[in-house]
Amino acid sequence: MIKPEAQIHIKNLRLRTYIGFNESEKQNKQDVVINAWIQYPASQAYDTDNVENAVNYRTICKEMIAHTENNRFLLLEKLTADLLALCMESSHVTFAKVEVAKPHALRFADSVSLTLSATREQ
């Protein structure tokens, strides 16, 4: 029997937040680009066509937006870990990965990014 895993990808969520520890970073919001991958067993969702058996990516996205825009962060690690925790809140989720990029953080690079992932033990 095939039991496919669904993978939701929130792609290039562009937000602004206070991130960094330099004085200018503390005073001015900066752009961040967020990518999240959320995996869960999809069979109950597609068998029943019931929203209660699926992961609500809209709710997760709204929580990510609110958390990012309404807080201050010294490190990419903290913001990324917080967003990963939001992705893992649903008991349906078996794996999640979050990447947060700071465009133009380095002079000759498009961006600097940090990626964290987590797996739920079953």
UniProtKB/TrEMBL annotation:
Any Gene Ontology CC annotation: cytosol
Every Dihydroneopterin aldolase/epimerase domain range: 8-118
InterPro entries to which the protein is assigned, alphabetical: Dihydroneopterin_aldolase, FolB_dom, GTP-CH-I_C/QueF
Gene Ontology BP term (one): folic acid-containing compound metabolic process
Keywords on record: Isomerase
GO molecular-function terms, A-Z: dihydroneopterin aldolase activity; dihydroneopterin triphosphate 2'-epimerase activity
A Pfam cross-reference name: FolB
EC number: 5.1.99.7
Family label: Belongs to the DHNA family.
Name of the protein described by the UniProt record: Dihydroneopterin triphosphate 2'-epimerase
